[in-house]
Each structure stands twice: as C-alpha cells, then as structure tokens.
Amino acid sequence: MVEKEASGVRRQSSVAVRKPPIRIGLASIPNSQFPIPKPDWLKVRWGGGPTFNLVEQQLRSHGLHTVCEEAMCPNRGECWSRGVATVLIMGDVCTRRCGFCAIGKGRPATLNPDEPRAVAETAAILGARYLVITSVDRDDLPDGGSAHFGACIRAVRERIGADVEALIPDFKGSRSAVETLLGARPICLAHNVETVPELYRTVRPGSFYERSLSVLRMSKDISPRTATKSNLMLGLGETRDGVLRVMDDLREAGCDGLTIGQYLAPTRGHLPVREYVHPEAFAELGQIARARGFTFVASGPLVRSSYKADEQFHGTFAP
Ligand code: SF4
User: With a 6 A CB cut-off, is 59 part of the ligand 1 pocket?
Assistant: First the structure.
C-alpha cells in the first residue's frame, strides 16, 4: 500500500514497531497474530523523475514485463530511478504456484519470437552495462524456454556488449536446458533456492530443494568459470540453523554468491510474513556467509536477487 505524505513524497505505509531481538525463526506465532505491523526499516521511496519515466516508457513501448512490477518489488522506485530494471521474459504468467510470488499463474501464452530484439533494444536505449534477465517457469515448453532465454542473452550481448546475469527457473533439473542457457554465455547464472527445504511444500510447491541445488551444481560442472548465485528470503518461518544449513548446501554445490532479503507478502492472499528480521541480523548473516566462502554477498531487509546486481557481482555492493 502506498500513502502520500504532506511533503508530496509517496512512501509505502508502515507502522513503527519496537526494535525486536536479533533472531530468526518465529514459526510458532499463531496465525491470528498476523499480519505483523511493518517496521520502519522497510520504508521505501516510491521514486519517479525523468529516468524512472524513461524506463517505464521504454518497457511499455517494447511490450516487456519486469519482475520489478510483476513481483511488486519494493525497490522499484530506487532501481528505475537509476535506469535499472530486471526484465521478465517468456510472458507474465507462470506455470508454478509458489505461495510467496505475485506473478500471475496459469496457462502462459506462446513465446514472442521478437522478444530477444525488444530486450536488446530496450537495454541499448537505457544504456545498460549489466542486465539481469529472468523468466517465469515455462514447464509447458519442452526445453523450459532455455533456447529462448539464451537468445535474449545473446541479443543483448551482441547489440551492446553488456554483461548479462541470467536468473533462471530450475528447468525441471534438465542438464541439456542448463547447457543451452550457458551456451549463451551469461556472466552469472543465478537460481534461487528462496527458502529452507523444510518450507518447500508451502512456499514452493512444484519445486524441490535438491533439484535447485542440482541446477547450481550442474552449472559449475558445465561452465566452472561462470559465477553462480542464489537467494534466500527470510521471514517465512525458517530457523537460524536452517538458514545456516542452506548456506552450507549452497557452498557444497559450488555457489559463489548469496543474497538474503526480507520476504514481504504481496497481498493478504499470499503466505503471511512470520517475522520482520532486524537489519542487524541480516548483517550478521552476511558476515557468516562470507566466512563460509561465498565470494559475493548481499544481505539486508530490502535486498533482492537482482538488487544492485552489478555491484554484487563486482564486490562493491553496500546495503
Ligand atoms: S531489486 Fe531487482 S526486481 Fe527489484 S526493482 Fe530492483 S531490479 Fe527490479
């Protein structure tokens, strides 16, 4: 929800709450106590201005979707105002039914063969040097959409020479699909485990924790020099020990980078937020992740997989 303040600045609504202790894992809170008031540290500026408007206009005129909008990302104002957006390819309808995600679910439309050109042209107009491309799950396609995904990556690189990070679905664990994707030479392959394995049934029905790990492992096996990255959302009822175990599993799968952010329920129809994790807890987990061998880490309440992805990749990220 967005409110307009007397100053004219639009902010996401929030209610001040007491500073909570640093801990992760409040799954025992009864459902009657939800929703929990949103803390001050999740306040964001709505954004606007000429660059924001240019991004919006170019995306619209090229018929492109973004995960920024479809997933109701709280950072849209900031990112678009910097001229950065994460393109969502292969439509805005997903074949999976994740309980946390705002992207539309159902039967997707046929692929748009002009999409690679449209993505490349938009990236060129926006002057992108590092672009994150992601997609919906396309379990209806024999290759999961990997060839189309690869075509979009190639089109951007060939048009403007930008680095492209591919935030991919699990392609049902298909090695040939991952090979196809890597053949397009993304600079980083990201695949998000999103949560601890204990919560997969409610958070990611239709997906499997081990399969997601296998995709990251496969990527390192096929293309050891391509960086890999994954993301964890906190606040869904996971425990601290569970989070640390996921870190170990990701490192075992050869994962180079990790992002950790706060889960925000897009609507009341989505999974409730079980806890707003304090920024200090995010900072501590970031330190632990670095100590466990991740070479690039971004951890904070508003961190998302694609948030300042270029800075994450180049090791200059500061929350
Ligand atoms: S963090 Fe990523 S998804 Fe969110 S607005 Fe920024 S670029 Fe878009």
Answer: no
| Model confidence, pTM | 0.89
Cα 264 to ligand 1 centroid, rounded to whole Å: 14
CA 166 to ligand 1 center in whole angstroms: 14
Q: Is 141 a pocket residue for ligand 1 (Cβ < 6 Å)?
A: no
Cα–Cα distance between 249 and 234 in angstroms, integer? 17
* pLDDT of 31 over the 60 cut: no
SS3 label, residue 53: helix
Query: Is any atom of ligand 1 closer than 6 Å to the C-beta of 67?
Result: yes
Band the pLDDT of 29: cuts 50, 70, 90: low
> Which tens digit of pLDDT belongs to each residue from 78-131?
999 999 999 999 999 999 999 999 999 999 999 999 999 999 999 999 999 999
d(CA 236, CA 63): 33
- CB of 87 within 6 A of ligand 1: the answer is no
- Between CA 203 and CA 197 the distance in angstroms is 10
Q: Residue whose CA is closest, atom 3 of ligand 1?
A: 68
Helix residue spans in 161-233 (DSSP H)? 175-182, 200-203, 209-222
The closest of 71, 67, 63, 160 to 113, measured between CA atoms, is 63
Q: How far is the CA of 80 from the centre of ligand 1 (A)?
A: 8
Q: Which residues pair with 259 in a beta bridge?
A: 231, 298
pLDDT over 90 (residue 7): no
The residue with tokens 């390192």 is 220
- 28 CA distance to ligand 1 middle (Å): 31
